[in-house]
Amino acid sequence: MSSPSSSSSNTTTVDASTMNNRENHQKPIPLKGRSLWSDAFRRLSKNKMALTSLIILGLYSLTAFLTYSNIIVSDWSESIGPSYAPPSFEDIRLLFGTDIFGRSVLYKAIKGTQVAMSVGLIVGIISVVIGVLLGAIAGFFGGIVDEIIVWFYTTLSSIPNIMLLIAITFILGKGIFSVYLALGLTYWVTLCRIIRGEVMRHKDRDYVQSAFSLGASRGRRLFVHIIPNVSHLIIIQFSLLFQTAIKSEVILSFIGLGVQGTPSWGTMIDDAKLELARGVWWQLAAATLFMFVIVLALNILGDALRDALDPKLKGKD
Amino acid sequence: MNIYSYVLRRLLYVIPILLGVCFLIFILFNVVAGDPTLVLLGKHATLEQMAELRHQLGLDRSLFMQYLDIVKSAFTFDFGRSWVTKQDILYMIKEGTIPSLTLTIPAFTLGTILAIIISLFVSLYRGGKLDKSIVFFCIALMSIPSLAYILFGQWFFAYKMDMFEISGYEFGFPYFIPYILLPGIIWVIISLGPDIRFFRTVILDEVYQDYVRTAKAKGLSENVVLFKHVLKNAMIPIITYVVIQIPFLVLGALLLESFFSIPGLGGITLNAINSSDFPVIKAMTVLSAVGYILFSILTDVLYTVVDPRVRLK
Questions:
Q1: Is A250 in Cβ contact with B204 (below 8 Å)?
Q2: Which residues of B touch A254 (CB under 8 A)?
Q3: Distance, in angstroms, between A214 CA and closest chain B CA?
């Protein structure tokens, strides 16, 4: 739980300089400092839920890698039984029954991990690159550059996300590549806003000024000095982007703009809308379960990262 | 700076944003999307047919004129006719608003009130087992895809258990209620997770403030502090969070409406997407952008009116 003085930094009335003084007086100066990262790791490793989530994330990544290199479930497209065989414990492949072509639903769900993890990762990377770059430039240089970037992302965020997604996938055509781009090109705005605000707060701080007086160029001050100091926000946002992207893939698949040819959780849930009337619930169950576990893990991890890396927010949410 | 000049300045700022939105829509649908006549006429269209259709749709005019058309529609709300149903789009929108609102307003109101009550209750036990388990429950609720709620709810509660109408809609006050019950409940469940998380953070932000300690030091009871002091201050971010969602209530719920065959704006939009009905998609995009921009100004103004600490700049 945070003390009253640290939470009051959220109000607009408190002057930043008095805040700093107060903090300096309260905290004894440690003889040997721990870096933010080692401190964060220490806090994270105490959190059992977060560690479990990290292991789950690792397992999913491993599964995605193994399916990608065809080491496991390379025979997902073979039919192993009759159409719509209900789940049974006789055979591991029948754990979640079969689909219309008699293919193992479990194998399809495992194969779908590959699509989900790649969508999360690539969309996260695209959004982070665009968001950090534009946000840092806007916040650091200010003036007309800032105005243009703010205008651009305000415009973009005025259009409902789903409309933009639809429009972009419409234009790029169907397929996983357009899913990456459509999501990546629309999801960077939040991060850009955050980074812009943080860079603006940081650019006049003492450490940046001393770097300036040592002759550091603008690019060096921005990318070597300021960005590492806001990088924890990037990591927190990345874990959020990752799971939002996984969830969005389902919606895109439902609208018929998603992944083609290879199974994904989105196409499986989309198939379920016709199957349910016939009582076939296992495809929906398998895809939802697979997705639930990883999204839950990422959510918990995101929260734990925020608690660990952003001490100001500790104990709140 | 007084409040009027602030509002005026914010309103003037709408113009570049709206021009930008129109430009983006124009780029996406008129420039990059290519020739829609092929989609509309099918594979066996002759060149003359395509040219005639292009003329009918106004696609043979200069790009600048086409851009101006979109800008004009953002201010006049005259969106032309649908390519598929040939109806006037403004008329379609007017028809679709009521079914959308009959679903979204009750669901939104109920969901928000429920979330506020739960988060206030939870903040009493902050840091405790109950608090932690409710936060975990919210995260778990948020981790299930919304489509799964809709598919499962419709199949299990409406189809199998026969507790609700499977789909459909009837106009008129008491008649629509059975049709909006299940989609409404699903809406509340989907929105509960993010709402509680947000409200809880906002309330906990206030709980550690000095004035709360003062109030407690005066000997006020926990309940009085929570409802009279904390809630009042927490209402500021809560109001802005609620107000900014209002334009999206008019737009309806895209997935819920299409699954439950409610003839609202969400369903209209999804049909337009499925049939490549560009004018309708463009109209809905422009409309939601205008709504979003106006309501974000409204929230900013509300913010300054409710909270005197915020200085205008």
A1: no
A2: 147, 255
A3: 35
**Binary contact (B147, A292; C-beta < 8 A):** no
**pLDDT reported for residue A3:** 39
With beta carbons less than 8 A apart as the criterion, state whether A111 and A289 touch. no
pLDDT value at position A140? 93
pLDDT of A20 higher than 80: no
Q: How far is CA A50 from CA A46, A307, B130, in A?
A: 8, 11, 19
Using pLDDT thresholds of 50, 70 and 90, give the confidence band for residue A311.
low
Q: Do A171 and B32 touch (CB under 8 A)?
A: yes
**CATH 1.10.3720.10 domain position(s) in chain B:** 95-275
pLDDT above 60 (res A275): yes
* Residues of chain B under the 50 pLDDT cut: none
Fold classified for B95-275: MetI-like fold (1.10.3720)
What is the model's pTM?
Answer: 0.83
ipTM value of the model?
Answer: 0.83
